[in-house]
Every structure is written in structure tokens, then in C-alpha cells.
Design brief:
The structure is a homodimer of 347-residue chains. With 347 residues, chain A is α/β, with parallel strands linked by helices. Chain A is built from 16 helices and nine strands. Chain A is globular. The N and C termini of chain A lie close together (11 Å).
């Protein structure tokens, strides 16, 4: 039921045709009536335990209060989020890599030569350790083979098809079911308070856009990611965009502030990440003038999700923990701060 | 007065807090009540003569009518516009080049060596022909000298400062006053009908973002343009984004559909341009499935603006005119179709 209430409010916000009661709530959000905002917090941040929730709401209430010295005008309310490990899970391997491996298996019947070639042989035999021994070169070949040499439209179809059929090896759920319920609520809460929400991820932008609008309510033009080469060509009378094998832009680490500048053009005031790949994005956000909010999701929940940080090969969080106090970053303890992890766990 | 009405309606659309009368109008726009939409056309496309206006409104009314076979869902209503010569003037030289030349003059006292060096010497002597004789190399040096080797924030300040002081050699107006009133109305009309409006220009993205939000109501994250190299670096404790001399991406010709794919991630349904540099953008737009609208602004008005097309060095329109019928592109005749050119000509 609550999901419908949220949707209705958001539609109301967008269309400007709310009924009187919703209109009052929407108006209160926009204009900063505190008591009504508090009741909306209950809707939007339901899956957050109180201590963590209040850190977020205290900040948002301050920066959206036009009579506060912390006020941030609506046009500057830019919020950026990493994707892997921040908005959805990333273990035991990045889901985009899981897609690539599944694609190799799907394509293998047309490529009998792969049964003896690296890096395909170990992948087809389920030998992930053997594949990883091939290092960056093996990963590069895997991504080039499965992500390029086709049009953007063909690639989009492949990702959508995979998302509907593939399942996670541990939960048995579709990958797009393994998004974080508390982060969905945070995205909605920020948007209801006038923020624009963006994804800024090391993941491939075309891979993400195939499903992020449906999953997070974030449209394609608010998704920033890594880029492959691309060419515009005519196939007869039909123009196509072909994905080319080279990596054109790596939207990770120091690349994230660059990607933000190029694609968004404003310095964010709110940033959420979970690994040292997000360090520079949070640093760039938190060192701007005025009020800023930086947040690292700390994977502490070995029972409901995964527990990893300083020594992990995937999503290593080391420098981010060291410098959290220096930059006033919130460390979200998934085990303690989140009532549920995934939407399918909601009652 | 009309400008205030438009602003009020747009604010109402965004905030969902319209008064009952405006709410009805807004709701009618969203839900497609034809008689009310016609009255809004009067507000939004006032500077268009009837024949041209009706080509636009007929199409928009069809694609926003949910019971029409031409209907386009709101999330797919992506409209893209070139900037130079499409949203503002571009003669006698691209305004960004005028900025660069003015910057050379401003910086010259700190560079006495420029008085004998190409391409600075001809520029400082007002010898544009001599500068142009240096070809692409001269232009590259001009742009690298004035657009890179500084932080994004410093560059933004320089553009804003120039925009407040510099004036056009013919009209004597500030450059941001030389935007096209009919196109402002078209942008507003499309947005009121659920379209997202984007700029997709060969111009530098940082140059445009310094003023396009105020001029057109288009926020920085909806501006796609050419990109320089960029690095994220620490200056002491302060992170900065430095603009580097190399051209990283040229958002022109076949680069425009690539820029659209990378930054917007959806194929547009409406595209407006004015030169063959926009040909591929209009072609990519018009060859998609479903209803599409392509428009070339044809510079036919030697009295109120400039007249140029097939043989011009700036904004050449040749292939676009040849193929307009093939792709069903509207050719806007500025002299015949527009009642006024610039906002300052409004009564």
C-alpha cells in the first residue's frame, strides 16, 4: 500500500494535479512545513532505523528551509549515487560481469573455438579463479566481446532479456530485485524535497540505462557511467550507433568528478557511495562551499547481505573509512541502520 | 505581462501548487483538453506566424493525445536543439569565438610576446582575415589559450563576466540578448506539453552552461556539447577540475548522435537545427519509429538578422535543404515565419 501512496504523491508532484489533501502535503514538502515533512519522513525512510534516519532528515530539513542559513536553492540540489554496492548488491561478482559471463555462455554455441581459448575456456567451465588469473586483459576481452561490436539498440535488448531471466547464485532472485529498499526510500525522499537524483557509476552507462529507470525512477539522462567508443553509421537507409571495443571513459575514482562535471555540470551537494572508487566523488562533493552531505554504505551484514570492507577485491572501502571523520561523512552500518535490505523482504 | 503568465504556469507545473484556475489549465495541457491547449498556444507561440505555428501545434497535439495512434508517452518526449544559429545568432562569428578573441585582448597585457606571434598578432590588430588564414591550427591555439589551463570554476567566472560586459558589433546588445524569441516560446511550449528540452551543440559545454539556464531555462545537465580534456587534482586540501588543452569530444555532425546517446540515452522525437552540422542529429531523430519532428531554422532575414545558407562559412545549410522533403523536415523561414527575432523587440 505504502508504495502506492508514494507513487501517487510523486505523480502529483510532477503533474501539478493533486487532490486537495495531497496537494497540501506536496505543498508542505515544497514549502517546508515541518510537521508535515516529519509525517512524510515516516513514509519515505521507513526502512531506516531512527539514529541514521535522523542524521539524514535533520540535514535535509535544514537545507530546504528557506529561512535557514543552510538553505540550498532547489536548482542546486544535486544528489549523486554510485550504483554497485550503493544502490544494489555487488557480490559475489559485479552484476555487470555476471551478465557478461552469461552472455559468453549464450553465445558459445556459435563460437566452438572458445572451448580452448582464454579467457573463454575457464569461463565456460565455471572456473572463475582461472578467469581472474588472466587479470585486466581477460576482463577487457570479456567486456569487449559482450558489450561491443553491436548497435546500442541490440545491446539494450540483450541486457533487458538477461535481466528478465538470469538469477543471483545465492538469493535466486533476479538481479534487479536486489536493489536496496532503504536507498529507494532515500532517493524518493530527496526527490520529494526538490533534489535531482543521479547515478554516477563505474558501470557501463548502456548497461545501467536498460533497467535503472524502472528500478530507481532515475531516467537515462540522469545516469552517468563508463563509456565505450561509439560510431554513427548508415546501414543502408538506417542510421545506427555502433558500440566500439575501446574504453572511451572510465567513470571511476578521479574519473567520477570529471564525469559529473561533463554530464551534470553542477557540483553535487549530496553524494552516496560504498567504496574507495567513490572517494573522489565524495571528496569533490564535501569540499564545496555551503552545506554538503557525504555517505558511505558500509557492508557489515554477513547474514542478510555480505560483510566486506578494507580487504575486499570488490568494493574495497579503506581510505573512505580512514577519512570519514575529516570530511564529516556518514558511515551507514547496513546491519544496524537498515530494517530490511531488499524490497522483497518488505512485509 | 505574458512572460509572467508563462512563468507562473511553469512554476505551477513544477510545484503542483497551482490555484484552481491555473490548475485547470495545467491539467488540460497535461491531459489534452483541446480547446484549452489552443488558448495556451496563443500564449506560447505568439511570435510565430500561423502557418508555421500550426505545423508545430498539430504535431504536438497529436503526440500528446493519449487516444491518438501517434501518442508518445511523456518519458519519451525528448527534444534536442542545436544552439548557434538555432537558439541564438551566430554571425558575423560564433559568439564563443568572439568571447575567445575578447579574452586574448584582456589577457594581452600579461603576454607582451603575443604582439609578434601568430595567431595572437592578427587578433590583437583586429585582422580577422589574417587570423582565419591560420586555419584550424590558429583556431585550436585560440581556444586552448582561452578555454583551458584553468579550473572549471575560473572559466565559468570568465564567461559570466564577459557576458555581462561584451556587446555585439552590429546590434550593440549583450550576446545573451540575441536569443530567438520564437525559439524561447517553442521551448516553453514543448516543456508545457511534457517534453524535456536539451541543447546538443558543437559549442563547448562549459561555455554554454555559464548562461544557458538563465537564458533558456535549460539546466546544465540538459546541455550536451563539445568537451575538453579534464583532470581532477588536489591543490593543497582543495580539489579542482582543470581544463586541459586537448579536444576530448567534438559534438558536431556525426558526433551529435553519439553525444545524444552518451549523455541523454534516449533517441529524441523532436530535433531543431540550422546547419549541416545538425544533419546527423535530425537524421537520427527522424528515422526512429513512431512520430518524429525535425526542423531547420533557415536564415533568410537579411534585414532583421542575417541571410545565409548553402555557401556560408558559418552555419552552412546545404545537405539539410536537399534532404528536407525526404525526411519531412520543416524549414523555418525566419523572414516569413517569425514576427520578431529577439526578445528585446517585443512590444
Amino acid at each position: 500500500m505504502k508504495k502506492h501512496i508514494i507513487s501517487y504523491l510523486l505523480i502529483g508532484l510532477m503533474l501539478g494535479c493533486a487532490t486537495p489533501k495531497e496537494e497540501q502535503v506536496v505543498s508542505d514538502v515544497v514549502h517546508g512545513n515541518e510537521s508535515e515533512i516529519n509525517s512524510l519522513n515516516e513514509v519515505y525512510l521507513d526502512s531506516w532505523n531512527d539514529a541514521a534516519k535522523s542524521k539524514i532528515t535533520t540535514w535535509v530539513e535544514a537545507v530546504t528551509n528557506s529561512s535557514s542559513s543552510s538553505f540550498i536553492p532547489e536548482e542546486d540540489r544535486i544528489a549523486v549515487f554510485d550504483n554497485d554496492g550503493t544502490l544494489w548488491s555487488e557480490q559475489p561478482i559485479y552484476f555487470q560481469v555476471a551478465f557478461a559471463i552469461d552472455e559468453i555462455k549464450r553465445m558459445a554455441p556459435d563460437h566452438p573455438e572458445w572451448s580452448t581459448q582464454a579467457p573463454f575456456k575457464p569461463l565456460l567451465e565455471g572456473d572463475i579463479a582461472g578467469f581472474l588469473a588472466g587479470g585486466e586483459k581477460a576482463l577487457g576481452t570479456l567486456l569487449a566481446t559482450t558489450h561491443t561490436g553491436m548497435t546500442t539498440e541490440e545491446f539494450d535488448k540483450r541486457v533487458k532479456s538477461w535481466m528478465q531471466t538470469a538469477t543471483h547464485p545465492v538469493t535466486g532472485k533476479h538481479y534487479n530485485e536486489m536493489i536496496y529498499q532503504p536507498m529507494l526510500e532515500l532517493l524518493g525522499y530527496l526527490r520529494a524535497n526538490g533534489f535531482k537524483t543521479f547515478i554516477v557509476s563505474g558501470g557501463g552507462v548502456d548497461f545501467m540505462r536498460a533497467w535503472t529507470e524502472e528500478a530507481y525512477g532515475i531516467p537515462p539522462y540522469q545516469v552517468v557511467g563508463s563509456l565505450s567508443g561509439m560510431s554513427y553509421e548508415m546501414e543502408g537507409d538506417t542510421p545506427v550507433l555502433n558500440k566500439l571495443p575501446e574504453l572511451y571513459f572510465n567513470d571511476d575514482k578521479a574519473g567520477k568528478p570529471v564525469g559529473i562535471s561533463r554530464s551534470i555540470g553542477k557540483r553535487p551537494v549530496f553524494a552516496g557511495g560504498n567504496s574507495d572508487g567513490d572517494y573522489e566523488m565524495l571528496q569533490y562533493t564535501s569540499t564545496g562551499s555551503g552545506e554538503r552531505f557525504g555517505m558511505f554504505i558500509h557492508h557489515t551484514d554477513s547474514v542478510r547481505e555480505y560483510a566486506y570492507d578494507r580487504d575486499s577485491h570488490i568494493g574495497r572501502l579503506n581510505k573512505g573509512l580512514d577519512d570519514a571523520q575529516k570530511y564529516n561523512w556518514m558511515i551507514v552500518d547496513m546491519a544496524k541502520d537498515w530494517k530490511v535490505i531488499y524490497p522483497y523482504q518488505m512485509k
